[in-house]
Write a structure and sequence with these properties.
heterodimer, A: alpha/beta, Rossmann fold, eight-stranded mixed beta sheet, 12 strands, globular, B: 325 residues, 11 helices
Chain lengths: 327, 325
Amino acid sequence: MTSVEPILEVRNLKKWFPVRSGLLSFMEEKRYVKAVDDVSFDVPRGGSIAIAGESGCGKTTLARTILRLIEPTSGSAYFEGVNIFDLTREELRLLRLKMQLIFQNPYEVLDPRLTIETLVGEGLTIHKIEENEAELRRRVLAALEDVRLMPAEDFARRYTHELSGGQLQRVAIARSLILEPNLIIADEPVSMLDASIRTEIMNLMEDLQEEHGLTYIFITHDLAQARYIGDYIVIMYLGRVLETGPMEEVIMDPLHPYTKALVSNIPIPDPTHKRDRIMLPGETPTPIDLPPGCRFKPRCQEFGPQCKAEEPELVEVKPGRFVACYF
Amino acid sequence: MAVLEVENLKTYYYLGKESVKAVDGVSFKIEAKETLGLAGESGCGKTTTAYSIMRLLPENGQIVQGTIRLGNEEITALSEEEMRHIRWRKASIVFQYAMNAFNPVLRIGAQIVEVIREKEGVSKEEARATVSDLFDEVGLEPKRQRDYPHEFSGGMLQRAIIAQSLACDPMLVIADEPVTALDVIVQNKILDLLRKLQEKYELAVLFITHDLSVVAENCHNVGIMYAGNLVEVGSAEAVFKHNLHPYTSKLIGAFPSVVGEKTRLQFIPGAPPNLLNPPVGCRFHPRCPYAQDICKEKEPVYREINQGHYAKCHFAGELSFEVIE
């Protein structure tokens, strides 16, 4: 999709969860929740890509599958040219050092009984990367300074309850950063935080990207937020990618009817700004037993006969812009 | 006459000998057919304000000062028994987590019927008929009264909660983060519904949210809260376009938008103060870029700066912030 060599290439990734519907379900045909259904995209090195969609569209499942926290149903994901799904446990362990995950809620990630120093150094200790204590401490303090928790010595001594939500999220970032990853997958990293603090974390992540040459995958439900953290966007709906392209182009000129509706519905912090909203009928259905054809068709206002017959493929309609729609 | 008039409300939570000054001197009013959006970050006291009005405070929470007038009645002095007559019939509340607001083992219709029968003393059949009408009104099929909460989606539950809040024909509806847990498309449908119902029933709405974008699009008037104080109140346009308080200006600057030029968002250094022991003087002064000596010593007075536009800042009207386009 881009000229830069990709750090991660996801190809035809599928994750279907079987549904058990009752006692005699083994006699029936197996049904699946198609949480991720044939998803392909590239992540350029040094870029940041936002995966956006409503709840239940499969964005978190996608992230977890890429990290192989859950096994995929089929497909492949090449990280620096190696298929993640072919690796042995040991190889995977080493690979995960290069691919780190940041979660939404730092309160749930960080053990309240450990000091910040232990928490940040944990990755190095567990993977037996740094066994020299003085060196370990030096690296922990450097990581804390990287995320602007200063004076670092002071923060290192503290426990999680002594820190605010924003500071805790920085600790979570420092924990990942200390392992010197190439790719960070952040699952709604700022959704829990208040607006005034959220921006601080977003700006920090942007600065860290430059300082450490990181590549980001952001998972978010909030397109307005996505606009400020990603330079590339993937719009998902019911497990499938409907549109991808450079962030500003997609937000300013969405091509897929779903993206158009989504963008038009985002509230704007300006009471004098009036615009037309595209209202979609109904609500997002569950991704079980989807009808043939385009999965957005039941709610779409621009469909034609071919939408019913076959699911549209993601095709390039303008340079860099990929859309899964016949129109 | 205003439907709701809150005057110098102070609500504290007691922790042993200490008290958390969660709401400290808040005044505002709401007219019929008017929406006041109360916005601010977590812990600023917006929900405590709502719970004080409905008298739903936890045991250690107490209204220590101030008056709340609902219609022509002063309600802070009412007994718990008298408050029962107010709730649902004069003022009702729509909670944030619709999935937790209904009992999961009872049919949704039955739960609303219960409210109506308790309050209005009507027969089961009449109450059921009312629920059918209400369901129709909020865009739910009346036959879905017989469903259990888990059979509803998040948006449908929120509709059911709204139906319930209107069951006894109140004059004030408090909506506490009514759409926060919903996806944007569903969110807008619910907001449109609220607006339509407000018009029809001439409701006064107190809309509580942390999301300034939602406030901007849905409220006539806006109140911004910080650390237990109401720091600015005015029409949505005045507050967003000609804000008087530095906190308001910074907070608006922190919100991402999908229109207009993309600029680096602002943030406010530091964190909101601990309300056990709030800073002396203006509560915002430790984070305020415009703070002077007087801000550290003297608490600013909440005063009217322009017609209908109030602020609690020593320098309100004198500061010029970068204009937010």
